[in-house]
Amino acid sequence: MKKLLIFISFLFCAFPAFAQIGQGQNMISGNLGLGFQLDNSGIQYSAAGSKLDWGSLGVDYGITYNYFITRHLGAGVEISGANYDGANLTFSNSDETNDSVHLFKAMLSARLNANPDSRFRFYIPFGAGLVSAKQDMDINYSGVKYNNKKTDNSLGWFLGAGLEFDVGNNGWSWGLESRYNIFTYDTDKLVKNAPAPIQGDGKRKYEYMNFMIRISKRF
Question: What is the pTM of this model?
Answer without folding.
Answer: 0.82
